[in-house]
Structure formats: C-alpha cells, structure tokens
Amino acid sequence: MDDLIADFVSECRDMLESLGGEIVAWEAAPQDRARLDSIFRFVHTVKGNCGFFDFPRLEALSHAAEDALADVRAGRRQPDPALVSAVLAVIDRIGEMVEVIAAGSPLPEGSDDDLIEALKPGAEQPAPVAPVPATTATPQGQAAPRTIRLSVDLLDRMMSGVSDLVLARNELARRLRDTSTDVAVASAFERMSGIIAEMRDAITRTRMQRIESLFVGLPRMVRDLSAELGRQVLVDIDGGDVELDREMIEMIRDPLTHIVRNAVDHGIETPAERLKAGKREIGLLTVSARQSGNQILIDIVDDGRGIDGERLVDKAITAGILDRGEAARLGPKERLQLIFEAGLSTAKAVTSISGRGVGMDVVRSNVERIGGVVEVDSTPGQGTRMTLRVPLTLTIIPALTVSIGTQHFAIPRVAIEEIVRASGDSVELSEVGGAGLVTIRGRRVPQIVLADLLGLDSGLPDEERTLIVLKPAGGDVYALSVDRVHDHEELVVKPAAPAVMATGLYAGTTLADDGSPILLFDPAGLARVGGVRFEAQERSVRLLDDVAPNEAGEAATPVLLFRDCMAARRAIRLGIVDRIEEVPGSAISLSAGRVRVQLGQDIIPLEGLDRLPASDSKIKLFRLSDGQSQLGLAFSDVIDLDAIADQIIPAEAPGMIEGVTLVAGEPAELIDAHWLFASAARPVAEPSSSTPVCRLDLDDPWVRNMLRPIVEAAGYRVITFDTEAEADLAIASAGADVGHTARRTLFLSPDADSAANENHLYRYDRAGLLVALREAAAGKNR
Amino acid sequence: MNELLLVVRIAGQRVALPAARIESVVELDTLIPVPRAADHVAGLSALRSRVLTVICCRRSLGLPMPERTDAILEAAVTEVDGHHYALIVDGVEDVLAATSDPAPVRAAMSEGWERVSSGMVETEEGAMLLLDVESLIAGPDAARQAA
Fold first, then answer.
1. What per-residue confidence (pLDDT) applies to A538?
2. Is A760 in a helix, a strand, or coil?
3. Is the pLDDT of residue A522 over 70?
4. E strand or H helix at A209, and its extent?
5. Under CATH, which architecture does the A2-119 domain have?
6. Complex-level ipTM beyond the 0.90 threshold
7. What is the pLDDT of residue B143?
8. Chain B contact for A496 (CB, 8 A cutoff)
C-alpha cells in the first residue's frame, strides 16, 4: 500500500508541476479547451485514486471540481472568473493535502465545504483562500521520498553494467577458487560480492515493477464505468506479480485502459440483455498477465456479446477502407482485425466512454511501438479475448538450476508449480503406450523425461529422479523429470544466438558461478518439443501438428476421440486424418449416387451423415486420406486426443465400425478406415506407372462423351491416338486406323450383329466392354 | 585491397577469414553442448563473462571430423548481430595482407566450401579462399532451407 501511495503522490506532484503553467494560462483564457482538458484530467485522476485510497476529503474536493469542469466541457456552463478562481483554490488545496499525505501524516480533520460551495454556479467569490489544512505539512529535513527523473538509456547502461559486473565477479570467484588465496583476499572478495549483490537488487528495482501497479486501478474503473452504463461486471485479476519494465508498464497503461473500457462499454451487455441471451446477469471480465518465453501476455477476456465481424465489414466498406471484393475474401480472423483500422467503431452509439480518447488503431500503434502485438479473438454471443503481447526486456530472471548427468540447465521459477521426488508416496509413474504419465496426489499430468528429450545420458533410474511440475504460460501442466535439482538463483540472462534459439527449447543463456554457460529453458518450448498435448480449446487442430514429433508415443496408436453426428462416441486413428475442415451445409450434396462434399477444388465422398444438412448449417468433417484417395467423415465435435489403451473387440459384421475399445476409460467405437475407403473412395486420377493407359480416338464425339467415362471409371488414363506413349489398350471403331499401337486393340462396331470375336464388340455391349477393360488392366499388372 | 586476412587451417586447407571481423583468437577449454541444436553448433563457451556460441567449421562445411579431438580447441571469436561466436578451426597460422580484391573461384569446389566462399584473394603466399563468417555460422541447414 505504501508503494502505491508513494506512486500516487509522485504522480500528483508531477501533474501539479506540469499543471502550474496551464493554470495560469487558463486563468488568462478560460475558453481554452486544451488547458481545460488537462486540468480536468488532473482532478479526474485525483478523484479516481482517492476513492481507492480512502481519502474522503480529497475525493469530495476533486469530485466537486470535476463536476464543475465537466459542465464547462459539455458547454452547460461558461467559465467565468469566479469558477476559475474556485478551481484554482481547489487545486491548491489538493496540492497541500498531497504534501501532507507524502509526509506520512494523516489528513487533518476539516471541511472543504467553502471551496466546494464556491464551485457552484452563481456562488460568491470565495473567501480569501482558506488556510493550509495542516501547517505541519512537509517540515524540512524529514521530507517524503524525493524523486528525480532519469533517462531510460542511462538506466539501461547501469543495468547492463551491473549484469557484466556480476559475471565478472563470478569469474573472479572462480579464479580465486583455483588459486589458493589468503584469508584477507577472500574476505575482501566476500565483501565485494555482497555489495555487488545489493547493488544489483537496487538497480533491478529501478527498472522493474510488478504489473500489479497497472491492475490496481482497474476494479475501480470498471466499477465506475459499469455503474455509469448500467452494467454489472465482475472483474477477475490474475498474474499481478509478473514483473515488467517500468517503461513498458507506462506504455501499456493507456492501451490496457482502453481495451478494458471497450470491454465494459461494447462487450458486456446490460443485465436484461444478458438474461435474454441465457447468460448470468453479471458479466465477467478477466484480466490476466503471464510470462511466456520472452514475452509478457496480458489477456483481457469478457463474456459479452463479442464482435460482429459482418458489421465490421459493412462499416469498413461504408468508411471506404475496403471494397466489396476485398471484403468477400476476408476470413473470420481478418474481419476481426478490422477493428484496428482507423475510423471504425462498432458501437451503435458513441457513448461518453467510447467517444472519448483513442480508438483501437491508436491502441495497436502504441503497442507496436514497444515491439508488442495486439491480438483479438471473438465469438459472437460468447465474448471477446484481446491479448497484448509485449516483449520482455528483463535480464535478471529468478531460476532453478537442475542437471542431467553433468550438464546444468536453468528453468524460470515463474513456471514452476511444485517439485516432487519421483519416489515420493503421493507420486505414481506410469506409462501409456510409451508416453510417460505421472499421477501426483491424484492429478495426472504428462511427463517429459528431460534426459530423453535432450538425448543426454543420465545414470539415474526413473524412480530416483526429481519431478518438476511446470505450468508454462498459456500451456498446460506437465512434469519434467530431471536428475537433480540444485539451487534457486537469480540469473543474468542474455539472449542466445539464433542457432540455439532455433531448437525452440531455450529462452536464453547465462553464466553460472563457475563461469560455465548455462542454458535457460523455455517451459512452453519444452512442452511443445516434448509433445505435451495442450488442453486449450484450439487443441484439436494444433495437436495434429504436434503428434508427429512425439517420439515417445510411437508405440501407441493415437486416436482422435469424437462424437459423430448421431452423438455416438467414436474414435478414429489419427494417422489417416489429414485435417479437420468446416464447411457450410451448402457444400454437401447428394450427387452421382452418394453424398459428396466440395472442399475447394475437390469433390470427395462424405460419410457419417444420416441426412443432408440444411444449407445454412455448418458441418465439421475429418478429411481422411489413404495416401491416394480422400474421403470426408462428418462429426459433431472432437472430444479428445488419446491412444488406444485396450484390446479392440471386433464388430459382429464388417462395416463402418471396426470394433469397440476403451479410450480414456470409456468405450468408444473405432472407425474402420479400410472399410470406409474400400466402400467409398475412388482413386484420385493421378497418373502413375501402375495406372493402365487406354488409347482412344478423342476426336469422335461418341468416344469422348460415352466411352471415355466408362474407360476412366475402370481406372484407365486416357490418351489420344496421336500421343506417343505406351498404351495397354486401344479402342477404335471397327475398321478405323489405330495410329500408334497398343498391347491390345479393341474394335467397337455400331451394329449389334457384326460383333465376331473377343476383340470385336458391339459398342453398347457394356458387360463385354467392362470385361475387356478389366482383362487389359489385369494384363498390365501381371 | 589491403585487407588483412587471418589465415587458418580447416581440414588441412589454408583459408582466410577477414581479420577485421575477428575480435580475438582464443583457446576454448570448457564446451557446454546445446542439446537438439544444429550439428555445427558445437556448444557454448564463456569468454570474459560473455557467452560464446561455438561453431565447428568442419561440420559447417560438411567435412569429416578428426579422429581425436582432445587437443586444445583453437577458435576465432567474431560478433554477428550482437551475438558472439567462436569458430573452431584446426589451427591459426598467420595474419597476411591481401594483395587483391576477392575474385570468384572458377574451379568447382565441394558443396560446403562453395557455400561459405566469398571468393579468392591473392596474398604474398599465393591465392587463398576467403570465407564468409555469416555463412559459416548459419551452417548447412540454413542454406538448405533457403534453397
């Protein structure tokens, strides 16, 4: 709390200082809007902070001034000299009180009614400015902490200087250990070490600040806003202990405030609307910060109405940012990106909250200026997630050092949940199809054996290892088994060379006390490379990519557990699932005797639907591939990714279901992919050496339109008479010239009676034709 | 024209590195491996409180490794994009002045040498291949990916 008060005091002092000139200028020209605005901002800030700190006197004063100034701003009142002096008196009084607070003494009892009264329209000129509320304020000598301003550059130089100093100290320590030194030198060195450590702490503090200082004001702001707008909002704040560069904190303060305002103003509906939409009356706004690799992620999530992509597009077209053609090509993600375009606001009405200040375009440019990124994700009706990613500039990271064999590594402490011994009572190691699982006090988490992942030798058996339970930012919990855990250390971390970062495992390098380099892990990277499956929502898609490098899981057959359109629990072998697609119902049609779906340029057979879907519905399907043909399988949702853990009980009769087996502890029907393809798939016409070739006279319309489809359906590749290629079969009209030869030539005659031998057929003798085609193709493969 | 060259031996060949790019020549003692990094990244080492990423020139060139590597590792230290690298060579021989600008090599070289070559320079001890530091550090994989 003291820190916060100190911040408040210094903020007020800064503002008062810069306001000094403004006040005078405003007195001279009360109509000057810019001056008025900055004075308004000051009293507004003071008011906001006072409420938080419980300084009722200050709050009442600033509130009164804010009201008066708001009237002026709204044009309801003209600034007259009386008002100007009343406001100035208030500002003076605020300044005095701030000094009292700074001195750490309680605010004296007293009344400011005189000043408040003077602010009212038509009030008398106030009595000569009231005496200082507390004459004891700021006695010289024991003044409140003094502050100065420093350039960030200078701080950076100090910071890197100290980092190098620490490293040099470490090296000196090592040299001293190697040579036998006398006690006097050793103790002098000890003292120096202590001083350096202290200095490093102090300098780190000059630069770093807990992100909490950014978050403390939010509940109050949201409360005020929601009261003003008639919303009910619950704010949930998490991750306030993430430390961030002070400069960054200042840079993201405005964007964050703006996003939170937007969430309350545009995102969260009124209680009545929420009830109608089947939601709880109280909207939930979650603001959380976490560290991920070398970034800090700040998520602002609301469960409001979401962003209407269609309307954004319409607005953008109206505003001339897009033309219709471009708009039609935008994907859902790109549509949402439009909110960052200048001049777009989805608010139906500009309210006092959204109308003031910056737009999302400014938010984005502010964040990008510090090397950050703003991401938006929204589901209409369910809410919006905005993510601010800002780079981590911090160079000192608290870390845990661990080792495999003889090599040491460091793990950032923020990601560590707990450390347990693999041999502990509450810990149970198990293996499912080659993948390690650990059950710690009933919680089952995937295990990564660091020695295996890194390909290092570790002499230790599994049970003697130590498990570090990690929760990387944005990822899921997993256990990392290491040989030994050494020490908690504050490490000076430097970025690693690109060749090292390319492994995806490391966040940087540092030097140990003995001067040898240590690699710092990126816990999220470890999970990714180690094949840990995330529980996040987008997992089904992401997982498909992740499973491939999962060497540990080779022995198990990974399956995708899903619910089909009839809500049956089914599983399909992951290997044959090419990808997951979502198509509109209109892409599915009953054509040529079976249900087919159009995917881009391809039309492939579709299984798994009991009836044709409505054309405006969305159908999710697996795109299956056996390497040559493709097939769609419709489903309603993916449940999980798992492995077949048990025996498969075969089905009674061959069909789409191969059998039933236990997946994730419950029975699931396993899709028989072989049957599916055997019954449905048609090979994609792709020339290969094993495809039989048929020579046809394509100049003849009858051949082109009637014969060719039959030949192609029989699996042939068709070439023309003048193509110089080897053909397995040539089909010509009786008496025609065949051109280039083929291994077998078939002559078709237009009248039924003339057909004589096996090489001469009546041209509508379909059965005979098919037999000939099959024989020729078989001859090829013999 | 009169660029100074650091003459080093890599797999029996005398080749030149631009001396202006080389900060120092060091003997590496400890080498910390970087698991799962590209082959030519031999590991990390420390020099005067700085972390060096150690690049094995032979591997970067796709050349066979010597039988025994317990000899002292000699390396040339260079800086690229703010990162310090140590390039392991078989030996550092001399510093010479170039008497010509680099000229393209017209003879066919093996793939590895071709990739890291920035041309042929004349010195008073004869013509010598000038190596490109960045390409050495990037290694064969990067070249393959770019292709």
1. 33
2. strand
3. yes
4. strand A208-210
5. Up-down Bundle (1.20)
6. no
7. 60
8. yes
> Which superfamily does CATH assign the domain made up of A557-680 to?
CheA-289, Domain 4 (2.40.50.180)
Mutation site for B-interface testing, chosen from A514, A519, A528 by largest number of B Cβ within 10 Å:
A519
Alpha carbon dihedral A174, A180, A184, A190, in 10-degree steps, equals 20
To which residue do tokens 């809007």 refer? A33
Q: Hey, are the CB atoms on B32 and A517 less than 8 Å from each other?
A: yes
Helix (H, G, I), strand (E, B) or coil at A779: helix
**Does residue A654 sit at the B interface (CB-CB below 8 Å)?**
no
CATH for A396-420+447-530 is: 2.30.30.40
Q: How close, in Å, is residue A453 to chain B by CA atoms?
A: 9
Positive/negative CA dihedral, A421, A423, A427, A431: positive
Size of interface A-B (CB pairs under 8 A): 75
Six token digits for residue A46: 């003071």
Structure tokens at A175: 């040299």
CATH superfamily of A693-781: Response regulator (3.40.50.2300)
Q: How far is A551 from chain B (nearest CA, A)?
A: 14
Residue A505 near chain B (CB below 8 Å)? yes
How much is the pLDDT for A630? 80
Q: End-to-end CA distance of chain B, in Å?
A: 32
Question: Out of A14-23, A353-362, A718-727, which region has the weakest mean confidence (pLDDT)?
Answer: A353-362
- What is the strand order of the sheet A760-762 is part of? A717-720, A693-696, A729-733, A745-749, A760-762
Is the per-residue pLDDT at A549 higher than 90?
no
Question: What is the SS3 assignment for A392?
Answer: coil
Position A49 scores a pLDDT of: 73
Compute the distance between CA of residue A728 and CA of residue A734 in angstroms, rounded to an integer: 18
With 0.80 as the threshold, say if the pTM is over it: no
Does B39 lie at the interface with A, CB-CB under 8 angstroms?
Answer: no
Q: Which domains does chain B have, with CATH numbers?
A: 4-146 (2.40.50.180)
Q: Tokens 């470490």 map to which residue?
A: A170
Determine the distance in angstroms separating the CA of A419 from the nearest CA of chain B, rounded to an integer.
Answer: 23
Provide the β-strand partners of residue A435: A432
Q: Averaged over A206-211, what is the pLDDT?
A: 77
N- to C-terminal Cα separation, chain A? 87
Band (A132; pLDDT cuts 50, 70, 90): very low
Between the alpha carbon of residue A355 and those of residues A218, A390, A732, the distances in Å are 19, 26, 79
Q: Which helix (H) or strand (E) holds A6?
A: helix A2-28
User: How many angstroms away from the CA of A775 is the closest CA of chain B?
Assistant: 47
Using 50, 70 and 90 to split pLDDT, how confident is the model at B77? very high
Assigned token pair, A15: 């503002």
Cα–Cα distance, A340 to A262 (Å, whole number): 13
CATH of domain A212-307+346-391: 3.30.565.10
Higher pLDDT, A60 or B48: A60
Model pLDDT, residue B54: 93
Both tokens of A352, joined, read: 């006092």
CA distance A375 to A385: 8
Query: Could you give the angle at which helices A81-102 and A56-73 cross, rounded to 10 degrees?
Result: 150
Cβ-Cβ contacts under 8 Å, A200 against chain B: none
Pseudo-torsion of CA A478, A481, A486, A489, nearest 10°? -30
Interval A630-655: pLDDT, tens: 888 888 877 777 777 667 777 777 77
Q: What is the pLDDT of residues A298-349, one digit of tens each?
A: 999 998 888 888 888 887 787 777 777 777 777 777 778 777 776 665 454 4
Query: Which has the closest alpha carbon to A729: A682, A766, A778, A763?
Result: A778
Burial of A501 (0-12, 13-18, 19+ CB in 10 A): buried
Asked if pLDDT for residue B127 goes beyond 70, the answer is yes
Burial of A114 (0-12, 13-18, 19+ CB in 10 A): middle
Distance CA A771, CA A766 (A): 9
